[in-house]
Specification:
Helix 12 crosses helix 13. The chain contains 16 helices and 16 strands. About 3% of the residues have low confidence. Helices cover 42% and strands 20% of the residues. The chain folds into two domains: 248 residues, 3-Layer(aba) Sandwich (Rossmann fold); 74 residues. By secondary structure, the protein is α/β, with parallel strands linked by helices. Strand 4 and strand 5 form a beta hairpin. The strands form four sheets. It has a six-stranded mixed sheet, sandwiched between helices. The longest helix has 17 residues.
Length: 435
């Protein structure tokens, strides 16, 4: 890789939770973005990918390590870096033209030059004729094009795209991605390097020269995969499908202990660890699909994604949850039913609840802690607030809410405890209270 533009060396970032505890979001991150390359960054939600982008843009400072732009320490926003966000981030009361001009206006560019450069960026991104339209008059794909035009109008060396296509429907996202690549390959863009944060493995393989896979808690680069295929790439070609399989394998690596057999139990989490955002009914559906033909207990994850119409952002947490509970094993890009998973699928509903309950109490400390706390309470019930406060010591408030809701859903299904959604109170199930 030639001519580094942005360099991160041993970068760390921490935030203080509402309870005062320090939570490490990034740790020992080493990364270099070079001229002439597109890099894709994959990882779980909450792994710190967006924080890393903001550090690269100079919007957030690093607590440890070095951040350099063109070899110089970066202090504050980098003029040569622009970001595109998932949420479009347009001002609804401004026209397309006015939204695109905003960055130029903030930099003190003269009105005449602002107009000319904004019109050029709007034409480049395929929105000519919509200069006077308001965001509410545009489709989602067109609004995202405005966001991209606004990022390009300042002629950045580096374009950071934070889930830029994920809020769009599949066809619109693919079309916009192809248009960006066409501009890149044709040399129409002023940008010299692009970093794309994505949850979509196929999107990453289709776009990138390198794919980085982020670990979580704290975030750091775990794997790196170089992609030497020329663009444009055929999504159905054997070479692309093989790379997609390889990325799935890297994404699931470490979900279980290396070298252990499917009969062994999953590793135990810590109390404050994040739980995979996995719906119980979908877990059941995946297990049943795995059990039956044509999979007969083992499936290639990309093939399973196509069969179920689940996105990577949905399927990977499901596979992590099933591995955590010992019902399946996700490794090397495949997912396999364990003997316990086979017994689970063959069981009646009551037996399924019992198996799920046993695995929760054995391998999900948060669920076991809630159950133990309820058993110690004289009334057999407790408000959710103390458990939220406990989680906020190791994660932000939104993540704590999500983790507790997953624990509640799983706990209710496993009949470990009940929950009143109106009052926010957890309690022992009636049968346990009687016992």
């Amino acid at each position: 890789m030639s001519h580094p533009i942005v360099e991160l060396k041993s970068v760390g970032k921490s935030f203080r939770s509402a309870g005062g505890a320090v939570r490490s979001v990034l740790e020992d991150v080493d990364f270099t973005l070079g001229s002439g390359e597109i890099v894709a960054l994959l990882g779980q939600s909450g792994s710190g990918k967006s924080t890393m982008l903001r550090i690269m843009a100079g919007l957030v400072g690093a607590d440890q390590g070095e951040v350099r732009y063109r070899g110089q320490p970066l202090h504050g926003p980098a003029r040569g870096v622009s970001m595109v966000f998932q949420s479009f981030a347009l001002f609804p009361w401004l026209t397309v033209q006015q939204n695109v001009e905003l960055g130029l206006e903030a930099r003190g560019v003269a009105p005449e030059e602002r107009v000319a450069r904004a019109e050029k960026a709007i034409e480049l991104i395929g929105l000519s004729g919509f200069e006077s339209a308001l965001p509410r008059e545009l489709s989602g794909g067109m609004r995202q094009r405005v966001g991209i035009a606004r990022a390009l109008v300042v002629e950045p060396e580096v374009l950071l795209m934070d889930e830029a296509f994920s809020a769009l429907d599949v066809l619109t996202g693919e079309r916009l991605r192809e248009d960006i690549l066409e501009l890149w390959e044709g040399g129409s863009m002023p940008t010299k390097a692009i970093l794309v944060v994505s949850h979509n493995i196929e999107e990453a393989v289709m776009m990138a020269d390198r794919v980085l896979i982020f670990a979580s808690d704290p975030g750091r680069v775990r794997f790196q995969l170089a992609i030497g295929l020329p663009r444009p790439r055929n999504a159905d070609s054997p070479e692309v499908r093989s790379l997609i399989d390889e990325v799935y394998a890297l994404m699931t690596a470490g979900a279980s202990r290396r070298g252990r057999g499917v009969e062994e139990q999953p590793e135990r989490l810590h109390l404050g660890d994040r739980l995979p955002q996995a719906d119980v009914s979908r877990m059941d559906g995946v297990l049943e699909l795995l059990h039956d033909e044509p999979f007969n207990g083992r499936a290639d994850l990309p093939q399973l994604a196509e069969e179920t119409d689940l996105t990577d952002d949905e399927l990977l947490p499901l596979s992590s949850a099933l591995t955590l509970l010992g019902l399946a094993l996700a490794a090397d890009g495949d997912i396999t039913l364990t003997p316990l998973g086979e017994r689970y699928v063959a069981s009646e509903m009551g037996q399924r609840h019992e198996i799920f309950r046993e695995q929760l109490l054995a391998h999900v400390p948060l669920v076991a802690h809630i159950r133990h706390s309820l058993e110690q309470a004289p009334s057999g019930e407790l408000p959710e607030k103390p458990f939220l406060q406990l989680l906020r010591e190791s994660m932000d408030a939104d993540a704590a809410e999500r983790v507790l809701q997953v624990a509640i859903e799983w706990g209710r299904y496993g009949e470990v405890f009940d929950y009143n959604y109106n009052t926010g109170v957890l309690c022992l199930p009636e049968a346990d209270e009687v016992a």
